[in-house]
Amino acid sequence: MTNVAGALDTRTAFSPSFFLLITLAMAFFVFAGFGLTYLQPIAAGTGQSYPPVVHLHGAFYFCWMLLLVIQAVLVNMKSVRLHRTLGTFGIFLGSGVILMGTIITVLFAGSQVADPVSDFYNLMYLAIVAVVGFSGLFIMAIRRVRVPADHKRLILFATIVLLPPGINRLYMVMWEMFELPVLATYLTMDVMAAAIVLYDWRTLGRISRASLIGTVVVVLPQLLHPVLVDADSWVSFYEWLASLTYYR
């Protein structure tokens, strides 16, 4: 009888996997950062008035993070069939994240390029990198859906690329900063990327191709940031994006 009870306890015990933990860490930065600077002020009636497109963008962003956590929990619990069913909805959400991210980036450029706010160039660079990086990794993840090991790594790295707005907001509130904490944000992203790479090394004895690709997409824009962020060619690109808001 004792042996049977022990076997049942072992079978039903919930032990979070590495992928669930790293997903929860990502969700923390998003929900904490936007919770303090967006959700809480709105709930308290002290937040600024945003156009509907901003709320729609936020809804896609939050739903993506929530789905990511749910999917990680389902895999952790071996509920593979439900995970795959929700994956179809994930394609819709991910596509919405790309579309709304693009729209918000263009609208932000249009509203600021003539009289830019502080850190405008940094914000534009991070936004463009997020849309392009997420799009590329998301498409690759869909193409590798039949290879779960690659698929989940590509999804994780794609989400890391989306994290700067949440990380920035959290750090700015915590440290009472008025300038964008670009370096701290990049270091936080690098820690998450490094955690996935180290997990690969420990469990596979090598770094998977998916993780190598994801790491390049996360790190390369950081290395190029000082060179490109306010280069004449990129400023011209920001101005071109801004011009799209006045398209006739």
Question: What's the gist of this structure?
Answer:
By secondary structure, this protein is an all-alpha fold.
- The H/E string reads HHHHHHHHHH
Look at the helices and sheets and give the structural class.
Answer: mainly alpha
Q: Return the domain count.
A: 1
Main beta sheet strand tally, sense and closure: none
Q: Work out the strand percent.
A: under 5%
Mean pLDDT reading: 91
Q: Please mark out the parts with pLDDT under 50 across 5 or more consecutive residues, or reply none.
A: 4-10
Residues in helix, %: over 70%
The number of E-state strands comes to 0
The helix count comes to 10
Gyration radius over CA: 20 Å
**Which term fits the overall shape?**
globular
Report the end-to-end length measured between terminal Cα atoms.
77 Å
What does this structure look like?
The structure is a single chain. Helix content is 81%, strand content 0%. By secondary structure, it is mainly alpha-helical. It has one domain. The longest helix is centred in the middle third of the chain and has 33 residues. It is globular, with a radius of gyration of 20 Å.
